[in-house]
Amino acid sequence: MIESYKAVYAAGQEEIVEKKSRFIASVQPIESEEEAISYIEQLRKNYWDATHNCYAYVVGKRNEVQRCSDDGEPSGTAGKPMLDVLLGQGIHNVVVVVTRYFGGTLLGTGGLVRAYTNATIEGLKQSVIVEKKAGKKVRIVTDYNGVGKLQYITCQMQITVLNTIYTDIVTIELLVTFDQLHLLQQEVIEATSGKCKLEEYGSTYFAQVKDEIIVFDDELVES
User: Fold this and answer.
1) Potential cystine with 54: which of 36, 78, 108, 113 (Cβ 3.0-4.6 Å)?
2) Distance of alpha carbon 133 from alpha carbon 124, whole angstroms
3) Are residues 138 and 178 part of one domain?
4) pTM reported for the whole predicted model
């Protein structure tokens, strides 16, 4: 099981200039190789007049698919450096296209590698990159006397509260990382003298984006 991994949550774009050549890095989150190819084709249409549209992408939590292209630049000077940035930063499920408009001055092999590397890095800086964590959805049912104790535990352990339902009893739904699960169970049993236990009702990935917790319910947690 992949307990956590880095991914692009929101697309970004940045431009750098090297000796009058423009390098425009476009970064896009993807879930499949088909999405990557479609995005690359769209960028080629958008920048049809560019000298080169080089790309790199990785697909899968284990980087099962890795592809790159120099698109006419000297071999190994564009796509591979871009791919190296993605792998080096440990970012998954992402495609980067660097569009070049030639400025009239040759950069040489080393200059091209630096330019495509730096463009990719700057493009990623303009994207929103998150750490997706695998978690368990758990439910705790308590009477009103136990609410304060459970709220204290979740606050101390910095556990995400998904929902609190008040009827004649109180149902608290939480999102817990796998390494928190056992400790939370112990804390709840101790605080409620064994009256409350955790009920697991699903697994998912989630991430914190600024002050908000985003839940990726469509993404399965593989055992």
Assistant:
1) 78
2) 20
3) yes
4) 0.88
Number of structural domains found in the chain:
2
**Tokens linked to 179:** 């390494």
Strand, coil or helix: 89: coil
| 85 and 23 belong to one structural domain | yes
CA gap 159, 146 in Å, rounded: 17
Instruction: For residue 173, tell me if it sits in a domain.
Output: yes
User: Which residue, of 102, 126, 150, is where some domain finishes?
Assistant: 126
DSSP letter for 145, please.
G
- Give tens-digit pLDDT for 145-194: 899 999 999 999 999 999 999 999 999 999 999 999 999 999 999 999 88
Residue 186 in domain:
yes
Contact 71, 78 (CB under 8 A): yes
Give the integer Cα–Cα distance in Å for 36 and 165. Answer: 41
DSSP characters for 152-218? HHHHHTT-EEEEEEESSSEEEEEEEEHHHHHHHHHHHHHHTTTS---EEEEEEEEEEETTEEEEETT
